[in-house]
Prior knowledge:
two-stranded antiparallel ribbon, 54% helix, elongated
Amino acid sequence: MQKFSAIIDQLREPATALPTPFAKCPAIVRPTSDEECRALREWAQHAPVAPPQPATIEQLAEHLKFLAAALPSKNVDDINGKMKASVYAALLGGYSNDALKFMARSACATLDWFPTPRQCLDLIAAYRPPVSDQETALRLCQDYTTDQFDRWYANVKAGQPIGDVPEQWMRIAVERGAMRRLSNGSFVSRALYHGPTKPYLSGATA
């Protein structure tokens, strides 16, 4: 184990500075108006998503050393050890530091021996990267839009004016029975012309 750990040390190289990440949206918060929602959605749909940065050889060596210290492995000589270390470096070198950290901790929690390359790849396959700022922004916009629709739909059912809303909203209201679409293509509120829907009372008399 000590010999393999020493061989892993030979993978080390000076850490290099990572490129400057893309600028983030200044305020990824739930919109409070249609204007804020449109601006946030436009940013999320057009802002480039920074790809995960591959781990440095220095970081990869640290994770392999962590595994070598925690899990037993077969004794290897210098030649086979170097070949083994180079295989791990070739297979795992393209993954992010967070993915390798997940792999190392999962291996310690589930395995009794130093993982094979295939086991390392299987563990990394279960890793899920953090949600991006763009995904968070789109979810917040969707939450805002859903709340606005629910409020509008309740008002339409109560007999309030339809207002200037997306046609998709009116189509949904038609499907739910709160609106009608006339032969000329226009939409009308059922409650506005027939009064709000009243609950059916069993046994009521005329």
